[in-house]
Amino acid sequence: MTVPDDAGPIVVQKYGGTSVATAERIRAIAERVARARDDSPRLVVVLSAMGKTTDGLVALAHEVSDDPRGREMDLLLATGEQVSVSLLGLALQHKGIPVISLTASQCGIRTDDAFNIARIESIDTRRILAELDRKRVVIITGFQGMTRDHEVTTLGRGGSDITGAAVAAALGASVCEICTDVDGVLSADPRKVPHAMQWREISYEEAIEMASSGAKVLHPRAAEVCMAYRIPIHVRSSFHDGEGTWIRRGDEMVMEQAAVVGVSSDRKIAKVTLIDVPDRPGLAAEVFRDLAARAISVRLVIQGASAAGLGRITFVLDDEYVEGATRLVDDWKSRGLATAGIVDREVAKISIVGSRLASTPGLAARMFAVLAREGINIDCISSSEMKIACVIADAHVDEAVRAVHDEFFPEGTAPQAERATR
Amino acid sequence: MTVPDDAGPIVVQKYGGTSVATAERIRAIAERVARARDDSPRLVVVLSAMGKTTDGLVALAHEVSDDPRGREMDLLLATGEQVSVSLLGLALQHKGIPVISLTASQCGIRTDDAFNIARIESIDTRRILAELDRKRVVIITGFQGMTRDHEVTTLGRGGSDITGAAVAAALGASVCEICTDVDGVLSADPRKVPHAMQWREISYEEAIEMASSGAKVLHPRAAEVCMAYRIPIHVRSSFHDGEGTWIRRGDEMVMEQAAVVGVSSDRKIAKVTLIDVPDRPGLAAEVFRDLAARAISVRLVIQGASAAGLGRITFVLDDEYVEGATRLVDDWKSRGLATAGIVDREVAKISIVGSRLASTPGLAARMFAVLAREGINIDCISSSEMKIACVIADAHVDEAVRAVHDEFFPEGTAPQAERATR
Predict the structure, then answer these.
(1) Is the pLDDT of residue B360 over 80?
(2) Among residues 93-132 of chain A, which lie with CB inside 8 Å of chain B?
């Protein structure tokens, strides 16, 4: 289906759970949507579940089953967004705004059948476009989809961002607005660094690295989708109409590329160290094949130099995988792959993110020097072109973030600083 | 699709909201379903929403809109049963029972598009039968359906009973079990009449009249559907495995037809009296056309004899329609249909229900005599072959129920009394 040129651009807005946490906030979002519709008559709104609804449903599921997952879990969790889209629909109808609320299944968001962690395969936009042509605001449940067999699926935590991005991509929207409880993308978490700066714009790649390194602004897959389809993202507040942060292609950005755009941290990690690993070809591959077979994703790997034919393998993983990894460690010991395995949950990761970090001399060194000056031990390091991450003791992570942020963004730097001025 | 003869009979169980009100109760229902499956391997379970979930959703809707209804309201309310079927599915999976939870849309319960009060048009049983053939317990959301265009609808209050009956009818089930928080169909509400008797069996017609006259045992439309398809209903407790009350065709019943099977009452009514109504042809029709146009259903009508060309029209309606009726009264006054209209909410209805009531001499007279002896004024009376209903002051309704019940079922009558012995 082709969109007639004169139909005007389509705007997609995604609102997160805190933005629709209560009936009062839903009424406020209805006001905001009504205003947005004056500027952008072709408006699609994607919603998360209200506040802590999803957590509540997960808790209920754990009351009836030790290991709730699969198809029935998705059927359960999908109700959260169905409630929020219905309520926003009723609130807009009450204001006399023509509107229709659609479930993912009703608006043709097709996914694979990997329940709980499904991926969007396609979106049949016919219904959405038909409703927009009828001058209705279209409200869509985030976080969920349906399989070819009409089974309900969910996309995993933060999945509403992915829905917003995928809908924007499928519709060729002029912008995907991520409306949230912060004002935009900041150089650090403002609860930890009060003078954190808000960016006017950053690149998709920077946003993806920021999101992957613990910043909660948006889901990295959402930024990837928008990057692939060249849909600009606007991360902005749900609570006022001020400009937030634009995320777009680096080569389209008017300002010079930054070196460092953000300092982020993540406490929800653990470190596993295998001791006395024989220096035998294929052994590391065996370890990581076992991890992959249990769907344990590893964030960082360090293989130490071997002494006397015995080495160490260290890897960092998300908290949620610790139990599975611990069982594997016992298995490896019994198979002679290591004499011992140490699982350390008292660690955290601090990252700096930016463009061309690795190829800009001295940036990594400045980060390490600051941590050394603060007396914070660096446990292990990983670096990529866009990110330098250090694993440290989690007791020190907040002071580490403040110190590293101060190094790259000295206090007094203006908010919305021009990138070129740094 | 035909069911192979050797596949065995299908049992449909419906559980109400109080039976699945908490995670603990859902676990208990899972135990019960697992036991039922041992006896009846082809088992379909229809669920209501947990406890007061629907009330909570309605309250939320009223926080965002003054008049929440229509399509988005149904999308909202339908989440309640989706939660309960998912949780029971997870609880049964946890016990190792093969199971699948289906929404009304997934199992093909097609309704008309009268949102909020939809009627089931057809059920495509292919998915249900395929799942039963795979040895799975099939759990279905009650109370809801979908239109031809895949819009979500709901059937109105008590609609889960209707779903249970319609599913049982479509599958040609051997029984439709209504599992609830009472032990069966009683001769009166046991909270009002402690020595109320439980029936071993009653006819469909009696059940329909009991349900319509305020007894909360099951939805009258559910009994109508089962009557049309000759599916026996078994009203029984969710909390123990004891026998409840069977509802079947009168001519199949082994015991003699009762005269009176129950005494019920309903406080949620109001009485509207139009004063000085001109005795003009077509005027009553005009009044009732106006009521029908506003979807106000009237339960009882009394048109008084006219004196000097002016008469009275009295009608009794459900509480929820009072506001609409009050607006109509003003309209009628302005159009000269009446000089005044009195809306009285302090009324209640007491009914006796049974077979051949009107044609059994003296039963109505005994009811009126008891009320007179208790000094309770009868405001108006309606009678049909199966029911005699009196409108009285609501302050007296509980004592009226006790007195009338004592007349027909003197204290000391054994529970589960043989009908023939009365």
Answers:
(1) no
(2) 93-94, 99-101, 103, 105-106
